[in-house]
TrEMBL record:
<dbReference type="InterPro" id="IPR029069">
    <property type="entry name" value="HotDog_dom_sf"/>
</dbReference>
<dbReference type="Pfam" id="PF13279">
    <property type="entry name" value="4HBT_2"/>
</dbReference>
<dbReference type="GO" id="GO:0047617">
    <property type="term" value="F:fatty acyl-CoA hydrolase activity"/>
</dbReference>
<dbReference type="InterPro" id="IPR050563">
    <property type="entry name" value="4-hydroxybenzoyl-CoA_TE"/>
</dbReference>
<protein>
    <submittedName>
        <fullName>Thioesterase</fullName>
    </submittedName>
</protein>
Amino acid sequence: MLELRRTCPGSWVDFNGHMRDAYYMLLVSFANDRTMDELGMGPRYLRETGRTLYNLDMRVRYLKEAHRGDRLLVEMRLLAADAKRLHLHSMIRNETTGAALAAVEAVLLHVDQAAGPAAAPFPPEVAALIAARLARDAGPAPAIRTGGVGLTR
């Protein structure tokens, strides 16, 4: 499981006194970037191959509010993968209290930008890193899900 830590700055808080909804997604986007790096698909990969990951579907389930100064923890797991897609689950928590703040699930597609963009299979070296991450993240399904997200045909 990949972990990302941030503190909720005042600029992320809306007039209701809690973290604006878009920043939950921003936290997950930062964790996506770290996952892409870990799986060999960071900025260098894009420059060298013209390939990257695009979001196909991302859903959030808001559970509790975050406030200015809260220490936030994103726990990201790779739940499934196929030849071209990844299914990620992220839990955003208040790191101090452990409270679940939001669950986010996403399906990302490997694309060749020069081809249109068009879906492209992962190269063998990336597929090996994905397999290792799947093994590392294996375990019971997350207790809190968003529903309707996954790798289907």
